């Protein structure tokens, strides 16, 4: 269980969070940009590792983060989270065991609240309670012979500048190559090596076009006399906050007030 993510054992096992870890990172070491494994792990999966079944939504999700160091320098991370099938029989068996324990605890708690024994539970509960408990157990269930178990996984790109759109397109293309039944034109390692070692940062005021896995990707860097790079779509801000809230936030910025945005 992931206690950092605020573990709640009252939740069903598929709704709980588990500890995550970095499986691999490339390159292994950069002098001017040391890899902080704990920070990247926490920022890539702030809610911890999660499991799903075929009945749950498993659409890939993209988010970003910033690591600000003591000297004020910033590093930007762009993360694509997706779900892949669990092939380990041991993990699937453990998940079913967790569900059996969870359902037994639920049964006991319902029994205790109804002041009845396990044998007389069905007869002492009214029809509505029995129906709701049955629905709850059907929803909060995992059958190893019937269900397919999936686990969350991330691929992350860490950059010195916030090229969000370019990183997003590269990660999506890389994810498609990983999950596609047809292999990509070149080995996956060649695309990763290319973006890490061969694609340079565009000079200030210039654009750069490089090739991803399937399509070309363009990123643009503002000139010295232009506004700083802001590659985040403003439309999303309006959709998330709404017009009135955004005007209020902008007013607070102009008045130099302290602003705290709280969300899930």
From TrEMBL:
SMART domains to which the protein is assigned, alphabetical: DENN, uDENN
Domain UDENN as annotated: residue spans: 2-264
UniProt cross-references to Pfam families, sorted A to Z: DENN, uDENN
Keyword annotations from UniProtKB, A to Z: Guanine-nucleotide releasing factor
InterPro entries attached to this UniProt entry: cDENN_dom, DEN5A/B, DENN_C, Tripartite_DENN, uDENN_dom
Gene Ontology terms, MF aspect: guanyl-nucleotide exchange factor activity; small GTPase binding
Protein name: DEN5B protein
Source organism (scientific name): Elachura formosa (spotted wren-babbler)
Gene from which this protein is expressed: Dennd5b_0
């Amino acid at each position: 269980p992931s206690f950092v993510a605020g573990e709640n054992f009252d939740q069903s096992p598929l709704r709980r969070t588990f500890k995550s870890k970095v499986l691999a990172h490339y390159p292994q070491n950069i002098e001017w940009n040391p890899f902080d494994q704990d920070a990247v792990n926490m920022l890539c999966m702030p809610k911890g590792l999660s499991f799903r079944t075929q009945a749950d939504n498993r659409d890939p999700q993209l988010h970003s983060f910033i690591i600000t160091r003591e000297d004020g320098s910033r590093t930007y991370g762009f993360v694509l989270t997706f779900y892949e099938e669990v092939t380990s029989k041991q993990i699937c068996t453990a998940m079913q065991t967790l569900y059996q324990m969870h359902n037994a605890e639920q049964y006991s708690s319902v029994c205790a609240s109804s002041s009845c024994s396990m044998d007389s539970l069905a007869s002492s509960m009214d029809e509505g309670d029995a129906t709701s408990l049955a629905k709850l157990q059907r929803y909060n269930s995992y059958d190893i012979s019937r269900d397919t178990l999936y686990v969350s996984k991330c691929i992350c790109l860490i950059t010195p500048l916030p090229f969000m759109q370019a990183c997003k397109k590269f990660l999506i293309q890389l994810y498609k190559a990983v999950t596609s039944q047809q292999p990509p034109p070149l080995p996956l390692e060649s695309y990763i090596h290319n973006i890490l070692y061969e694609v340079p940062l565009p000079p200030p005021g210039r654009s750069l076009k490089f090739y991803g896995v399937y399509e070309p990707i363009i990123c643009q860097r503002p000139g010295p006399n232009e506004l700083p790079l802001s590659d985040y779509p403003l439309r999303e801000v309006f959709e998330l906050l709404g017009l009135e809230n955004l005007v209020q936030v902008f007013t607070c910025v102009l008045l130099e007030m302290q602003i705290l945005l709280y969300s899930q």
